[in-house]
Amino acid sequence: MSRMFMDLGKYLILVILVVLLIVKGTTTLGYNWQWYRVPRYLFTKTDAGLSAGPLLKGLMVTFRITGVSLVMAFAIGLVTVLMRLSGSFSARALARAYLELIRNTPLLIQLFLLYFVISPIVGIGAFTSAVLALSLFEGAYISEIFRSGIESIAKGQWEAGLSSGLTVFEAYRFVILPQAVRRILPPLTSQAVSLIKDSALVSTIAIYDLTMQGQAIVAETFLVFEIWFTVAAIYLVITMSLSTIAHEMEKRMTAVRS
């Protein structure tokens, strides 16, 4: 408990120092803070009451992209790891080629390739291109998480499942994967945090997510620091919440295994 308070104190001191540095820098530049103008970009008041402003609308787009991409990334990761662990040479080679290609090229380049080169050929839009790019990119890393979880299961579990008459697919479904998922939930949650942060790149192909809405507001109002601090704070709240969930899950998994 004392260590937790010590870490919290260090974090607060760091935050205070960063804030003081920023305030000093903006004072030197002669920047005029106008925080009172920020709430209108979060909520707008109408006759029917409060409605979401541009930043919250952009956040909803970010959630949509992240949610769809996360589901697809899980599916791609699971299929890839099953191919990699299969007895088929062609399946293993294909999975390995996909992993090496995706993990050794930047996400931004993959996003541009899908949107500017492939999407005009196959006729898909910016949203689909963004989801595909994020899904393929994150799916490669999720595949490695799945692989580590599956390979951590004792060999005797395989033998018990197969000896009881289960097929390989049934052994995966009923014996191996349920045990593996319990072990890899924390790193999977951490990968979801990474996906949320990576989704900011979709603003480069004119998708009005949270980051793109921030850029548009800054271009219109010149509230550079206020808007970007607000956008950063929104991302921070989301990712810290997921990180806390991942930490609690990891603690519970550790307690169960011990």
β-strand amount:
under 5%
CATH homologous superfamily title: MetI-like
What is the helix tally?
9
> Could you name the CATH class?
Mainly Alpha
Category from helices, strands and their pairing? mainly alpha
- DSSP helix fraction: over 70%
Write down the overall mean pLDDT: 85
User: Major sheet, described briefly?
Assistant: 2 strands, antiparallel
The N- and C-terminal alpha carbons lie at a distance of 21 Å
Based on Cα principal axes, name the global outline.
Answer: globular
Unreliable sequence segments: none
Q: Rounded to an integer, what's the Rg over CA atoms? A: 23 Å
General description of the model:
It is a single chain. The protein has 258 residues and is mainly α. It has one domain: MetI-like (MetI-like fold), CATH 1.10.3720. Helices cover 78% and strands 3% of the residues. It has a two-stranded antiparallel ribbon with strand order 1-2. The model has no long low-confidence stretch (mean pLDDT 85).
Write the layout of secondary structure elements.
Layout: H1 2-29, E1 43-46, E2 49-52, H2 54-84, H3 89-103, H4 107-122, H5 126-151, H6 155-163, H7 168-198, H8 210-221, H9 224-257
Antiparallel strand pairs: 1-2
Quick structural overview:
The chain has a single domain (56-257), classed as Orthogonal Bundle (MetI-like fold). α2 (54-84) runs antiparallel to α3 (89-103), α2 (54-84) runs antiparallel to α8 (210-221) and α7 packs antiparallel against α9.
Keywords:
2 strands, MetI-like fold, 258 residues, two-stranded antiparallel ribbon, mainly alpha, globular, single chain
